[in-house]
Amino acid sequence: MNQEQMKNDLVNEVVYAMYHKLGDENADALKNCMHMFLTRYELSEKSTEVVVYKGDETQTLVRKFLIAKKIQGCTDRTLDFYRKSIVNSFGKIGKTPAEVTPDDIRAYIAIRQIRDKVTSVTINNELRALSSFYGYMQKEEILMKNPTATINQIKTPKKKKKAFTELEIERMRSECKTNRERAIFEILLSTGCRVSELTQIQLTEKRTEGPICIS
Length: 215
Hints:
The protein is an all-alpha fold and 215 residues long. The chain has helices at residues 3-38, 54-72, 76-93, 102-114, 120-139, 166-174, 179-191, 195-199.
């Protein structure tokens, strides 16, 4: 590993460890500060007698990727998806990231389609995770080749969804028993947002400017 990679890994590890206390703005400031001061030093890897197995190599690279994504601002939910999807994919392929070839990716897609019988949407999500992983590794010059670069997304049939009629909407609205249920229904109906997006909405106390006059 060259000096630039070692310094970048060190910076990411430190920023990641402090991220929950620093926040986005301070994390960026710390990252820039460390990069500036580390230009004065040469780093060296500590040698050990412990054998590094292929599984350890994969986990190390995945961790580097996740740390970088965390610093970029990805949510814990997104990071968990990346981790599970990427680790599962390499587990099924049976090779380390450096050993994987485009043919391995194609064989993996075939296995997921034919044997595992998963949907095209699921496979495309897994491919996006692998592509993001390899894109980062190639950009940082940790891995020189991206085996996903020549792999196309699987075409998925587009289904035209039938809109609810006014009568159906009123029937659903009448089933709401509490103000909370009515609020959830109206938000979903008027915005078209996903349920996962709705559950991440946080309520904050509204503050007013100046004194409140009550007459």
